[in-house]
Amino acid sequence: MFHYLDNAATTPVRPEAAQAALEAMTGGWGNPSSQYALGKEAATQVQGWRSDVAHALGCRPEEVFFTSCGSESDNWAIHGALEWNRRKGKHIVTTAVEHAAVLEPVKALERRGYEVTYLQPDHAGNIGPAQLTNALRPDTVLVSMMLVNNELGAVLPVREAARAVRQAGCPALVHCDAVQGFLKVPFTPKELGVDLLSVSGHKIHAPKGVGALYVRKELADSKRFPPLICGGGQEHGLRSGTEATSQIAAFAAAARLGAASMAEDTARMAGLKNYAVARLARELPEAVVIAPEGAPHILPISLPGYKSEVIVRFLSDRGVFLSSGSACHRGRPSHVFAALKLPKPVLDGALRVSFSYDTSEEDVDALVNGLSAARDALFSTLS
């Protein structure tokens, strides 16, 4: 038996989502662009699945465009926004704690002559709305701010950011990476006031390899928002390529089920987070909870004086799986934890625990017991 506590990296596929994928592969497997009955049936199914994802997001189906992942959605949003505003300026505002899928394309644009303002977090990863207001300029063409930080769980002020952009009168489009927020915190794109919003399937118990980009209808209908891929005209001409029907089917199933049980699931995860904090305080008082507030499914902690990668391996040998930060870092130090300017012992021991609807108290118990064992077993070599 193992205890999986790395749901911010990826989630196990729901059986219903796997079944939906299987049915799409073995039943209605026609090409949705084909004009005969099998193709038309597949096209109808894709539209139904689009409606399911749109309902979970709280937007219109025609505002949902399927992609291969959250990173693709982020890249498309960034480059699309800059193309939209190509004659209005070359200034971008984002945060220093964004996912690499935002930071890396922004850094590449910086090398091409764009000017970037990186908003800095406080010690818990929060961004003050006043920072953004002060950063906005008449030539700001894009503001990209994530909804929930993938390593800290901090909920960023996206709604306030969008409001500040409108009040400032600058031309910026507002993009939100909502990959970690989708079905974890309540929102709709309209409530946030964003123009573009990215989500991913494998964070909500769908398979890897599918995501979506919300494009506000006025942008999508304008004929000015640039396509990601040119070709056969799929996704209303904005992302050509034959639709990945089995992955989309699974994404829709996971979104539908997740939306139906969101209130119950998030309450359960919040309870587990509180349970973990209480057990750590009682049995491992030297552990530091880096950001106790925020989204219900992410708990960043540290065991100061111990190297996080050693702790991760120690726990893995005991069947407890968690992360030393974002799985996308591949062993490199986390830019998110580094941005908090934590004391070095705390930074070195930083870990990310992340829950799901099917995480149990037994999983948390295994974590705390494993950390206690690590403290005792590794103390002489790492103290």
How does this structure look, described?
This protein is an alpha/beta fold and 383 residues long. The chain folds into 2 domains: 15-260, Type I PLP-dependent aspartate aminotransferase-like (Major domain) (Aspartate Aminotransferase, domain 2, 3-Layer(aba) Sandwich), CATH 3.40.640; 262-382, Alpha-Beta Complex (Aspartate Aminotransferase, domain 1), CATH 3.90.1150. It has 14 helices and 12 strands. It has helices at residues 15-26, 37-57, 70-84, 100-111, 129-135, 158-168, 189-192, 217-220, 245-260, 262-283, 308-316, 335-339, 344-348, 361-382, and strands at residues 3-4, 64-67, 91-95, 115-119, 140-144, 173-177, 196-200, 211-215, 288-289, 298-302, 320-321, 350-354. The strands form 3 sheets. Strands 2-8-7-6-5-3-4 form a 7-stranded mixed sheet, sandwiched between helices. The chain is globular, with a radius of gyration of 21 Å.
Topology:
Elements: E1 3-4, H1 15-26, H2 37-57, E2 64-67, H3 70-84, E3 91-95, H4 100-111, E4 115-119, H5 129-135, E5 140-144, H6 158-168, E6 173-177, H7 189-192, E7 196-200, E8 211-215, H8 217-220, H9 245-260, H10 262-283, E9 288-289, E10 298-302, H11 308-316, E11 320-321, H12 335-339, H13 344-348, E12 350-354, H14 361-382
Parallel strand pairs: 1-11, 3-4, 3-5, 5-6, 6-7
Antiparallel strand pairs: 2-8, 7-8, 9-10, 10-12
Helix pairs in contact: 1-9, 2-9, 3-4, 10-14
